[in-house]
Amino acid sequence: MDASWAAVVVNYQAGDALTACVASLLADASAGTVDVVVVDNGSADGSVRALRAAFPEVRVVDAGGNVGYATAANRGIAATSAPVVAVCNPDLEVIPGTAAAMIAAFDDPTVGAVGPRVRNPDGSTYPSARCDPAPIDAAGHAALGLVWPANPFTRRYRALDADPDTARDVDWASGAAVWLRRAAVEAIGGWDEGFFMYLEDVDLGRRLREAGWRVRYEPAGEVVHVQGLSTDRRAARMIVEHHRSSYRYAAKHWHGARRLLLLPAAALLAVRAAWAVVARTLADRSGARRSGSGASR
User: What does the H/E/C string look like for 140-189?
Assistant: First the structure.
């Protein structure tokens, strides 16, 4: 397909959100025609069937099972040919005009990736453009993030003090919606498929910068993201996967004396994951009880 840019949507059990996401991508003609490809990770919820009924022209790549986000992103990118390709979650909608803002950022030949402003459904800005997790900030965020979200370690990691209205260079942009220069991604060998879910975007940003490319945040482009639409159905597994990916990232990128921190990091992550799973389970049970009580009145 002769398109100005391409978009890869990685789908897993997104329901009606998948069709809404694709509709928003196709509706944004601000940067010309877009080639949309959906990579489906073995969904069984009818989301692909509904998409095909609404947009039969959109290509669907069947991954043959849940191969993970990074692997699906690579397969989608390989199925397209445009010089700029976005990789998106299925539970987001693109605001008209976003494509033009994103594509314009690549006029600078040193830019390898651009992330838009990500808004929550209530209109607030989600901190999607962040800093690399230095060991001290990673430890502080892991230890305190669940009980004290505004702690200084989390604030630095999430760049919470940065002005969300100002375009800037960042260490990495959320993989929920990131526009990529094909040449840059191909130069670093694509997304690291060793990450099943989470941290693959942190790793991608780091490798792009190490290869000499810049990663940008561009608030003139906006998407609205419903967090965790598919992962909430497998909350416990996703919590464990998040912590596993955190350790994999550290093991991959911490060198020299920092590697001495891997063993205590593994212990901290294991304790944190167990705590998070228990807390989530108790919260889900409490919510179910409240829902059941409300339904009986």
Answer: HHHHHCCCCCCCHHHHHHCCCCCCCCCCEECCEECCCEEEEEHHHHHHCC
CB neighbours of 32 closer than 8 A, spacing ≥ 6? 3, 4, 5, 99
**How far is residue 194 CA from its own chain's centroid?**
16
* Inter-residue contact 73 to 39 (CB < 8 Å): yes
Give the ranges where the chain is alpha helix by DSSP (H).
16-27, 47-54, 69-78, 98-105, 135-144, 152-157, 182-187, 200-210, 235-253, 262-295
- For residues 68 and 61, the answer to whether their CB atoms sit within 8 Å is no
The whole-model pTM stands at 0.89
Closest by CA to 63, choosing from 44, 37, 89, 41, is 41
Residue 232's pLDDT band, with cuts at 50, 70 and 90, is low
Between 233 and 25, whose confidence is greater? 25
How far is it, in rounded angstroms, from Cα 229 to Cα 201? 18
Long-range contacts of 144-153 (CB under 8 A, 24+ apart): 146/272, 146/275, 146/276, 146/279
Q: Is 61 helix (H, G, I), strand (E, B) or coil?
A: strand
Number of structural domains (the chain) is: 1
Alpha-carbon 119 to chain mean position: 13
Q: Which residue bears the tokens 């990579």? A: 39
* Domain harbouring 222, CATH code: 3.90.550.10
Where in the sequence is the domain holding 41, given as residue range(s)?
5-295
**Least confident residue range of 106-110, 213-217, 219-223, 256-260:** 256-260
Predicted confidence at residue 237, as pLDDT, reads 76
pLDDT at 3: 85
pLDDT value, residue 75: 98
pLDDT on residue 261: 85
- Please give the distance of CA 76 from its chain centroid, rounded to a whole number: 15
